[in-house]
Structures are given as C-alpha cells and as structure tokens.
C-alpha cells in the first residue's frame, strides 16, 4: 500500500510540474492591424500563413489548422 501511495504522489507531482511548465508559454497575439482585424476563422489565417504564401509558418509550428485555439486578437 505504501508503494502505491508513493507512486501516486510521484505521478501527481510530475503532472503538476508539466502543467505549470506548459501554462507559462503563451502564443503570440494576432496583431490588431488592418490585415488581421477581421480574422475569425482558421481559413482566414491560411490565406497568408499557409506554405508558399507571403508569411508561411515554420516547420515546427504545432497543428496549423487550429490557429484560433492558441492565438487571440490583441485588445486595444
């Protein structure tokens, strides 16, 4: 029983550390400019940020079809 409690405490500690590490990194805001002020869909982002467009995303960027989950429009 003691080993089970020790393992559970260790697992909880690892999960808490991972949670706090991941919550510190925030995605950049969507700029509040004429190009971005009406962005409301992921498809709108892809018009400029898809591969081969004027501002493509880096290769190591997370899933590229879920922009608005991480990025939000900057408030004034």
Tally the beta strands.
0
Low-confidence stretches: none
Beta strand %? under 5%
Q: How far apart, in Å, are the first and last alpha carbons?
A: 56 Å
Q: What is the domain tally?
A: 1
Rounded Rg = 19 Å
Structural class: mainly alpha
| General form | elongated
Could you tell me the mean pLDDT? 87
Q: What sequence of helices (H) and strands (E) makes up the elements?
A: HHH
Characterize the biggest β-sheet. Answer: none
> Count the helices. How many?
3
Can you give a write-up of this model?
Helices cover 46% and strands 0% of the residues. The chain has helices spanning 2-24, 42-49, 67-70. The longest helix is centred in the N-terminal third of the chain and has 23 residues, at 2-24. The N and C termini lie far apart (56 Å). 3% of the residues are buried.
Descriptive labels:
76 residues, mainly alpha, 3 helices, elongated
Give a nutshell description of this structure.
The protein is 46% helix and 0% strand. It is mainly alpha-helical and 76 residues long.
What is the secondary structure topology, with strand pairs?
Layout: H1 2-24, H2 42-49, H3 67-70
